[in-house]
Structure formats: C-alpha cells, structure tokens
C-alpha cells in the first residue's frame, strides 16, 4: 500500500485486504493500523495504490513490512523506482500489477464488533485497524 506523493509518500507491505464490488464499482479494501507511517499519508490522500511485486522482490517486501518509513528510506533501501499515476498517486515501476484507488470510505474497526478470540490473537495492544475502501480507477499491468 502506497500513499502520498511521488516526492513524499510512504509504502508498507500488507496482507489483509480484498477485492470486490461496492456501489456498482470495482473496489479494493485494505486495513492499516494507526501507528503505521503509511496511515498518516492515506488519511491525507484522496488516492492510494496497491503494487503487486513478484517473488524476486520478497526481501524488499519483507523490509517494507518490518521497517518504518519514519526511520528508513524504504524506496532507496529497496531500489524501487517511483512513478506517478494519472491522479498523481505514487507507485513502483517494478510492480507487475498496480491498482490505483480513489479513497471512497474509511472506517476505524469497532472493537465491540470483533470476536474476543480475534481481539486476543490480533489486537493484544488494542491497536485496531482502519478499513479503507478504494474505487479502482486505473489498472497498470505488465
């Protein structure tokens, strides 16, 4: 998940999400915890991107999931080339597939609606994700 601008943005590796249809539009759903640096960018942005990279980038994806952009220049560390979608949202040239999404909905998860076993396993620090739904406005594929 990448948000911000090509000059000043952040990216993170995420595994929680999905694709579907909402309000007659193709959408992507992703979840971000509020302490993640990318959260600050997606909150301020109208658009975000989802870049899907091949197996050759497994080490870089691990870094993007483990290190904070507050402390490390992930783009530089990974050797990624930032491009801009038509809307200006940043994505990576190395991606095999990019979904450019217009943010249409954001909702912090309500702990009252999360089963206790899920809270115990995934939220011991009560740092509940915010769910973002973005309308897919552009698809870039190799």
Can you describe this structure?
This protein has 142 residues and is of the alpha+beta class. It is built from four helices and nine strands; from the N terminus they run ββββαβααβββαβ. Helices cover 20% and strands 39% of the residues. It has a seven-stranded antiparallel sheet, with helices on one face. Strands 6-7 form a two-stranded antiparallel ribbon. β3 and β4 form a beta hairpin. The longest helix has 9 residues.
Q: Which helices and strands occur, and which strands form pairs?
A:
Elements: E1 2-4, E2 9-11, E3 17-22, E4 25-32, H1 37-44, E5 47-52, H2 58-66, H3 74-78, E6 82-84, E7 90-92, E8 97-108, H4 116-122, E9 130-141
Antiparallel strand pairs: 1-2, 1-5, 3-4, 4-9, 5-8, 6-7, 8-9
